[in-house]
Specification:
about 400 residues; alpha+beta; Double-stranded beta-helix; 12 helices; about 25% strand; disordered C terminus
């Protein structure tokens, strides 16, 4: 079957090479000019993207920001075209609010480089935010934001790349879920996390190098704290649910103590998440399109290359494609309220019940109140039959 598939792809003028350690990642060879990809090839690539939610195009030469954006948006048929065309009129969908290309505001420069004049972005020092220099920051882009809808497509275009360092690590949320025991899968439905991105932005949090354990004394902070599930429903019946965790922004599990929550997060990350880590070693002219709702990721700590005299420079373009596609979580079943206790994630049956019912109340509240706040940047749906899950 695989040989037949590759032969079919050859008629599309490109070939896929599956990552040897993660079959949800595919390298694409044979498309160097992304500006002139015909509709038949785009349709084929979109189908590939469903099966391989990370496509890495090799050898894409001389890509400008506008071409990069136009190509990337083709992988989300629910892309918010109004926001793309008029970003200043759709600030709620402006997902790159910091350094931007003046003539292409949905694309931002990233890495470590001095730009004198690059596609009209002039005289700026591009450098990673300090925590990205020293630690792993595991996240899905925008997830847990106060009001922005989590986008589907994140894309990178590698302009300059050091020989050592500057990699990005990815973990499939579906792979995490599929590897859990059945009771643990049910327990994930009952985990409602409280996260706060503002502590990260203001530098009032501290974590370990691996990005799995918060180290500073807990400070209760209502402002900027949002409730986020860890289990999300698939967009397509062929996909699995996905576990997406945000340890860097993690405050606690709703209904648990901070101490028990941090212990759970550390154990969950080290035992259930990090074993599925895949490192992508970028090369110049790589262009990556990945489904942001199916992965967590982190750049490898940037000091690896910044402090290396043989390669201190890294430069890439990044875009988040704003979308209209709802992000769906799963309503837990009250009959499974003991699942966290049964999985030994919490040692108190009453706490397990309380937190599960808090999750159900949260889902009911979002369904009842509709879309006015962060709490409807995702939706809930009833868990379907077990043939999918």
């Amino acid at each position: 079957m695989r040989l037949v598939y590759l032969q079919f792809l050859s008629t599309m003028a490109y070939k896929l090479h599956i990552h040897p350690l993660e079959n949800k990642i595919a390298y694409v060879r044979g498309i160097s000019d992304i500006k002139n990809v015909d509709e038949k090839t785009l349709d084929s690539l979109r189908e590939d993207f469903k099966k391989y939610p990370m496509l890495i195009f090799k050898g894409c030469k001389h890509v400008c920001p506008e071409t990069f954006l136009d190509f990337s948006k083709e992988f989300d048929l629910d892309a918010d075209l109004d926001a793309l065309d008029s970003p200043l009129e759709y600030q709620h969908q402006m997902l790159q609010p910091f350094d931007q290309f003046p003539d292409c505001k949905h694309v931002a420069p990233r890495g470590s480089i001095t730009l004198k004049n690059y596609f009209n972005i002039k005289n700026i020092e591009v450098e990673p935010y300090e925590p990205f220099k020293t630690d792993y920051i595991w996240h899905s882009d925008i997830l847990g934001h106060d009001y922005k809808l989590v986008h589907v497509v994140t894309a990178f275009y590698i302009v300059e790349q050091p020989l050592i360092g500057g990699d990005t690590d990815f973990i499939s949320g579906e792979r995490i879920y599929e590897s859990l025991k059945q009771e643990e899968k049910i327990a994930c439905e009952n985990i409602l996390t409280e996260i706060n991105r503002r502590k990260f932005v203001t530098g009032t949090m501290e974590q370990d190098y691996a990005g799995v354990n918060r180290l500073e004394p807990h400070l209760e902070m209502t402002e900027g704290t949002n409730s986020v599930p860890i289990l999300f429903a698939p967009d397509d019946p062929s996909e699995s649910p996905r576990v997406l965790v945000l340890p860097t922004f993690f405050e606690k599990v709703n209904g648990w103590t901070v101490s028990n929550s941090r212990k759970w997060m550390k154990n969950f990350m080290t035992e259930k998440v990090l074993p599925h880590r895949i490192s992508i070693q970028w090369q110049k002219d790589d262009l990556a399109i990945f489904n942001n709702r199916r992965w967590i990721h982190s750049s490898t700590p940037a000091n690896e290359y910044i402090k290396n005299e043989n390669g201190p420079t890294r430069f890439l373009m990044q875009t988040f494609i704003p979308t209209k596609k709802p992000l769906k979580a799963i309503i837990p079943n009250a009959k499974n309220a003991y699942a966290c206790y049964n999985s030994k994630w919490i040692n108190d049956q009453e706490v397990s019940i309380i937190s599960a019912h808090n999750m159900i109340k949260h889902a009911d509240s979002i369904i009842k109140n509709g879309a006015n706040t962060f709490e409807n940047t995702y939706e809930y749906r009833v868990k379907p039959n077990s043939t999918l899950f």
